[in-house]
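Record type: monomer structure entry
Structure origin: computed from sequence
Chain ID: A
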Amino acid sequence: MGSATTNSIPRPLVQLNQWFIVSTVAISWVFQIEYFLLLPFIVGMSALLFKYNPVIKAGKLFLKKEPSSYPPEDADQQQFNNIIAVSCLGAAIISALAGWSTGYYLFSGMVFLAASVALAGFCIGCFIRFQWKRFQYKRSLQ
């Protein structure tokens, strides 16, 4: 698509978004406000539908250096991860609306865990996407 600088997101902005997800899920659990999950869901949907993430946009204002000077994260990979996160958050919200607290905690917990593990250095979505691409490639050889 483009060079690394045009199709990438500075790592601090990706981490800011991950912290936003972790903190909003945690707040929804601690205060038992299931609909607080609407915040990361709406942000994620905005990123998917309009390619506009307000958390990342606001975070850009606080970067101390030029965005291209930070380690890059692949924008396509982040989009894939976002699809998974929005799907799980949507399932958690639907579960809350249906009164199914197990589903609410299960789906929101998956997002919380994935974002937390990503902050620690391992991207679950990246692993899933890599395995999917690998499977597609092997299948194309047959």
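Annotation 1: The two ends are 28 Å apart (CA to CA).
Annotation 2: Helices lie at 11-30, 38-50, 54-60, 75-97, 101-120, 124-141.
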